[in-house]
Structures are given as structure tokens and as C-alpha cells.
Design a protein that fits this description.
alpha/beta, Rossmann fold, three-stranded antiparallel β-sheet, methyltransferase
């Protein structure tokens, strides 16, 4: 199964499961603690939120930001995000994150539980796009599952990209990309791409803040690269 087919199935999962998306946030204390952690993160200025889902994080970002542009590819979750987010400073965009190009630069690029859904071969391109989307002095802020979370997933072995199986209430099942990044390895990988990152573990998950390569401001002036 190539990356394109796997990503298509991943998208189908999130579209079909939109109504079940928020359940973990209601049931799990660790996720509620992470939501509260946004208040201590360097969220400022104009914010680009990637893979915003149902908007669990969007309102918290809006409370700290001058504006938020929240992007997701699934219309079903975006509908829920719009319904729960009343702020006039938030703009929602429906777009494929592996093809979309921001038309402007941002002070902060934020993504929660998205990095783990990117196939490893596409990570350098993703980080290049994030760098290009940042204004001079801007930072990327991200939250995701660490290696300990693998015990909570049905992980398939022997695949070119890490794959997990997710099931919905109707019994349907889908394969998704699920990469359990180790904070120290991720820090080193980002350093190899020219980023300066500080990533800390929090209850089996991690929170990262990263500054792009020094050349990114010039690249941003020429426009962001495609995430491919």
C-alpha cells in the first residue's frame, strides 16, 4: 500500500468518524491537561493551525492570537469546528495539507496530533513548508503522541510506513499512518534539517517548540513549497 492510498484511507477514517472525534477529549484527563497547556506555549500573533480537526485547540489558540487560520481536509470535522468556535478572528479553510500552499506568512504554526500522521518520506517536505509559512522570528509549536502511545494502538508490522488500524462504532475499520516519534530522535532529525527545537515529554506525549533555519525568511518571501 503506497503513501497516497494510505493517506486516502486515513482521510476516509476522519471523515467517517467525525462524530466520534471528540470522545477521547471527554474521556481522557491527559488530553484535557494538554489542552490547558496551550496557555503556557508561545502562541502569538497570526497563527496557522494545521489539521485543526473539530476545533478542540482552535478557541484556545484564538484567545492568545491576533488571528487564526485553521486548516483541515475533512469537511465533516470542519463543520463541527465552525459550530464550536465563535471568534470572529478565526478563519477556517478546507484543504489537503499535502497540497495546500498558504498565501501569507504567520507568526506561529501550530499542529496537534498531526505530525504522527505524516509518512516518514514526506516529513522533510512538510517541515520545509512549515518553515516557508513562518514570518521572520516565527516558531512552530506542536503536540503529539510519543512512543509510549504505541501500546494503545493496533499497530501493523512489516509496512514501509508505520500503520495502525482504527475502528469506528459501526464496526468499520481503517488503516492510518501513525508514527510514534521519540522526542530526542525528532530533535536530532529537525537539527539535521536546520531547525532548532526543544521537545519535552508530557505523560507519554510530547510538546515541541521549534525555530526554522535562518534562510527561511527569504524562502517565505518567495512563497511556501508544496508538501510532497
Amino acid at each position: 500500500m503506497d503513501d497516497d492510498a494510505l493517506l486516502a484511507e486515513q482521510m476516509a477514517y476522519y471523515r467517517a468518524g467525525a462524530a466520534e472525534y471528540d470522545r477521547p477529549y471527554a474521556e481522557r484527563e491527559d488530553l484535557r491537561e494538554l489542552l490547558a497547556a496551550v496557555d503556557d506555549l508561545p502562541i502569538a500573533g497570526d497563527v496557522l493551525e494545521l489539521a485543526c480537526g473539530t476545533g478542540q485547540w482552535t478557541s484556545s489558540l484564538a484567545a492568545r492570537a491576533r488571528s487564526v487560520t485553521a486548516v483541515d481536509a475533512a469537511a465533516e470535522v470542519l463543520a463541527l469546528a465552525r459550530a464550536r468556535t465563535a471568534s470572529a478572528t478565526v478563519r477556517f479553510v478546507e484543504a489537503d495539507l499535502f497540497a495546500w500552499q498558504p498565501s501569507r506568512c504567520y507568526d506561529t504554526v501550530f499542529f496537534a496530533f498531526w505530525l504522527s500522521h505524516i509518512p516518514p518520506a514526506r516529513l522533510p517536505g512538510f517541515w520545509n513548508t512549515v518553515a516557508s509559512a513562518l514570518a521572520p522570528g516565527g516558531r512552530a509549536v506542536f503536540i503529539d503522541d510519543g512512543p509510549a502511545a504505541a501500546a494503545e494502538e493496533e499497530v501493523l508490522s512489516g509496512r514501509p510506513a508505520p500503520v495502525a488500524v482504527r475502528r469506528l462504532d459501526d464496526g468499520s475499520q481503517y488503516r492510518i499512518v501513525k508514527v510514534f516519534h521519540d522526542p530526542s530522535s525528532l530533535t536530532a532529525d529537525l537539527a539535521a534539517l536546520g531547525w532548532s527545537a526543544h521537545i519535552r515529554s508530557v505523560a507519554g506525549k510530547f510538546i515541541g517548540v521549534a525555530e526554522p533555519p535562518a534562510t527561511s525568511a527569504g524562502e517565505a518571501a518567495r512563497g511556501p513549497a508544496r508538501v510532497r
